[in-house]
TrEMBL record:
The keyword Transport appears for this protein: yes
GO molecular function: transmembrane transporter activity
Organism per entry: Sphaerochaeta halotolerans
Protein name listed in UniProt: ABC transporter permease
Annotated compartments: Cell membrane
InterPro entries: ABC_transp_permease (IPR001851)
CDD domains, A to Z: TM_PBP1_transp_AraH_like
One Pfam family recorded for the sequence: BPD_transp_2
A cellular component term, taken from the record's GO annotations: plasma membrane
Length: 360
């Protein structure tokens, strides 16, 4: 009888822990709906407000999808926020200043699709450098990406001397108009940024669940040595994961610059924390090997709802940082709790199996 009660406790605890992100999201929506309606007369669930939240969630969500793959391998990427800033600055510079060709005595202005491609390739390349530092030079992921964070941010400031690239409208005579559409455009009533997050999420889920590459990512995070012995190209997979993270970060930089119709070198500061928080809130273990893309996107919604709700309530930015920090700590503690429960349940199963073998 006691054993059955304990087993029930384990199962209930595991269900609650696995559902923690959805439960947190529902609770936040209820709390902000009640508080904003009673204190400020604001309908938190108004379609316009929900669409605004979705736009903010897309920023965190896209970055967090890339971050999830990195964390699943047992790594971390602290350079994503700086890649966001650098990507926006490169796009801004190409639109406003073009490429000066001194040898020809002129300036080359690229079309917007080509500018977007250049920035995405740049972000992917920076991610590739991170991967090479980690896999070829054996630099710890934390240190390698921390160094890249400063390097990318430094180049973002160097690009304009710390100034902003304003009015990224482009000029018809130069053939570089249309950049703001990326941030302001809509399809079926939803912003392009949200559609991009959905598309990236679908692709990432397919990769994680349906391809050998996805299985290799989980295997590396579960046990890197065992993955190597089983024939998985650990260095190649890890490098590609960081390249994907860089690509996602560059995409976010383009979206933000497009939405603001301006690029500033400080854009993206501390965004890496939101990306990591969304992944961990969504159930991705910081030790690697455990997590899902769907959970990460839900975690991004938790971060987005929390941030926008606090702003609408008029909570000080300083207190917002405190609350976000507490949420991140709570997420990590719950992650560790889940791992302990998993370990205990596996031990219990092993004991039962041993007893069955002995009795046989």
């Amino acid at each position: 009888m006691k054993n059955s009660i304990k087993n029930n406790d384990f199962s209930i605890s595991m269900i609650l822990l696995k559902m923690r992100t959805i439960i947190a999201l529902i609770l936040l929506v209820i709390v902000f709906t009640v508080l904003l309606n009673t204190t400020r007369g604001i309908n938190f669930l108004h379609p316009v407000n929900l669409m605004t939240i979705a736009k903010h969630v897309a920023i965190t969500g896209i970055m967090a999808i890339g971050m999830t793959f990195v964390i699943l391998t047992g790594g971390i990427d602290l350079s994503v926020g700086s890649i966001v800033g650098l990507s926006g600055m490169i796009a801004g510079g190409l639109i406003n200043e073009g490429i000066v060709l001194n040898m020809f005595g002129g300036t080359l202005y690229l079309h917007v699709p080509l500018i977007i491609l250049v920035c995405l390739l740049l972000g992917t390349a920076i991610g590739g450098v991170n991967g090479l530092l980690i896999t070829r030079l054996n630099v710890a992921p934390f240190i390698g990406t921390l160094g890249m964070m400063y390097i990318a941010r430094g180049f973002a400031n160097i690009r304009s001397g710390g100034a902003t690239f304003p009015n990224l409208q482009g000029k018809p005579e130069l053939g570089n108009t249309g950049f703001p559409i990326l941030g302001a455009g809509r399809f079926l009533g939803m912003p392009f940024s949200v559609w991009l997050m959905i598309l990236l999420m679908i692709i990432a889920i397919y990769i994680a669940k349906k391809t050998p590459f996805g299985r290799h990512i989980y295997a590396i995070g579960g046990n890197q040595r065992a993955a190597e012995l089983s024939g998985i190209q650990v260095k190649k997979v890890t490098t590609l994961v960081y390249m994907f993270s860089g690509f996602a970060s560059a995409l976010v930089g383009l979206i933000i610059a497009s939405q603001l119709v301006a690029a500033h070198p400080a854009t993206g500061e501390s965004y890496e924390m939101n990306a990591i928080a969304a992944a961990v809130l969504g159930g991705t273990s910081l030790s690697g090997g455990i997590g899902s893309i769907g959970g990460t996107v839900i975690g991004a919604f938790v971060i987005g709802v929390l941030s926008d709700g606090l702003v609408m309530l008029g909570v000080s930015e300083f207190w917002q940082n405190v609350i976000k920090g507490l949420v991140i700590l709570a997420a990590v503690i719950l992650d560790q709790t889940q791992q302990r429960i998993n370990a205990r349940s596996s031990e219990t199963r092993d004991k039962k199996q041993r007893k069955i073998v002995k009795s046989a």
